[in-house]
Amino acid sequence: MGTECLTSHPLGIEIALPGPVGEHNLYALHPRGPILLLPCTRTGLIEQVMAALADGNDMVIRDDILFRESLGTLPPMVAARLRWTTDWETQGPYAAALIEDAGEARLKALAAIARLPGPIVLAQTDNYRSEWLVEEVSTSINTTAAGGNATLMALA
After folding, report:
1. What sections of 22-149 are H helices per DSSP?
2. In terms of pTM, does the model score above 0.85?
3. What is the rounded CA–CA span in Å between residue 93 and residue 83?
4. Of 152, 134, 148, 143, which is closest to residue 14 (Cα–Cα)?
């Protein structure tokens, strides 16, 4: 697969891969998971929300009156994808973090993210990369047990 498939938001890509007879292989891109948003400004918040939503992810946002007011009129389906927190440093797990570049605040956020328990959190600052907000899923289905016909397995 060339990079031409990833020039925009990659969510929803599904590609059937070649394989031996009796095997069905599928490559897909799914949402990565809860994304921690650490904006400093209203503009940064909107950019981070757009980046996370474009790839189908849920979001965790530091509770701030300015941010709540900025997102107060979201449609219910979008608002349901948000979780507000006053203590993100003790919660998680997060699949990734988006940090608005703000010098010393960025360094403190990166240090706090590094201390989080569990898997390493992929952190990005500004110019967020959409392909880093999805995860690759590879599925291989062996159909040889039903004579190479997956529909026969479904009937059993």
Report:
1. 42-54, 65-70, 76-79, 104-115
2. no
3. 13
4. 134
